[in-house]
Amino acid sequence: MEETSKTIKKRPKRIAIITVALVILAISSIAFWICYQAMKAESHARYMGIMKSSAQNVSRTIRGVEMNAKNVFEEVAEHLDSAEDVIKALESKAYFNLDVKGYFAAFEPNYFPEKGIWFEPYIYQPDARGFEYRQVGSARHNYMKSSWYLKAKATRATFWSDPYYYYDGTSMSGHYCTFVKPLYSEGGKLICVCGADMTFEWMEQELEWQDETSRRNALLNKYHPNTVFDYYTILLDKDGTCVAHPQNKVVSITDKDIIKDLADKKSGVANMDIDGVPCTLFYGPIDFVDWTLAIVVPKQDILRPMLPIAMVLSLAGVIGFLVVWLALRRIQTTTEDKEVKTDEKVD
């Protein structure tokens, strides 16, 4: 009977401990869920902000290229008396924007009879030492069949060409995008198509520099619990092609909804696996061109700050449970001592 009585007395303690454990578990779970949702919201705002800032930087670079290119083209338009004057005009403004790989003027056949059918003077940067001159028009490089030349002739407007690869076995070979403007005579006859080239190799270096700047930004990262950031920036064409990316970080977009957003110049967020790594893509359009800038964030970047939070909540739960258990044990011990003393007095 005495053992049965002790078992009955211990039941309230067990019930209280189980109840407290369930309450602590529920509170910890709710707290973790709230923190997780807050961290997702913070990550969304953070990476959308970085994406928009990077897109604006690229847009400013492109606008700078356009403004300088137009100055070069106007200089060419004012010096059409001879082929030598055209070359000097291209050279005179080239140094004003070193983001440009080269400037050219592709003339209609026999505009300068002594230069023949293919006259395309090109002032370009082979390296950081300065600009050089080359005559690139030839039967092998018949620019009059190039898409940018045909489009300029058809639209009579300025535009950025689609990305393309140029190869001639020299330092000029590479991936390009060209800002194009046709020049016409007073009678409306096409004289030449001028262009300013940007290389995507240069753009990749620019994107990597922007990533490093964001990662090291003390103000941006001041209150962020994560100190290791593996995200990177890419440029996407309107058809989903990755035209600029860090080394070994090629991203292939096949999702029809994302491609539609790219074509419609819309912003968005999408989850996808890249090289077997679950990632989140934060993307948005760039002004003046048909490209989209995207920030690729491995999901571990987003979830990594949750690890210390989960550890703190778990530790707090364990400590809370131990405190309650010790308190109940002390209360039970005190109660049992009082009952023993009462029984002794009765006896």
Description:
The protein is α+β, with helices and mostly antiparallel strands. It contains seven helices and twelve strands. It has helices spanning 2-77, 83-94, 147-155, 200-215, 256-263, 299-303, 306-346, and strands at residues 102-107, 121-127, 130-135, 159-160, 164-166, 174-184, 190-199, 232-236, 242-244, 268-274, 277-285, 292-298. The strands form two sheets. Strands 1, 2, 3, 4, 5, 6 and 7 form a seven-stranded antiparallel beta sheet that branches. The chain has a five-stranded antiparallel beta sheet with strand order 9-8-12-11-10, with helices on both faces. The longest helix is centred in the first third of the chain and has 76 residues, at 2-77.
Q: What's the end-to-end separation, in Å? A: 18 Å
Runs with pLDDT <50, length 5+? 1-6
Mean pLDDT: 82
N-to-C order of helices and strands: HHEEEHEEEEHEEHEEEHH
Count of DSSP helices?
7
- Give the DSSP E fraction (strand runs of 2 or more residues): 15-25%
What would you report as the Rg, rounded to the nearest angstrom? 34 Å
DSSP strand tally? 12
The amount of helix comes to 40-55%
Briefly note the structural class of the backbone.
alpha+beta
Q: Report the biggest beta sheet as strand number plus sense, adding barrel if it closes.
A: 7 strands, antiparallel
Rough outline: rod-shaped
Short summary:
The chain is of the alpha+beta class.
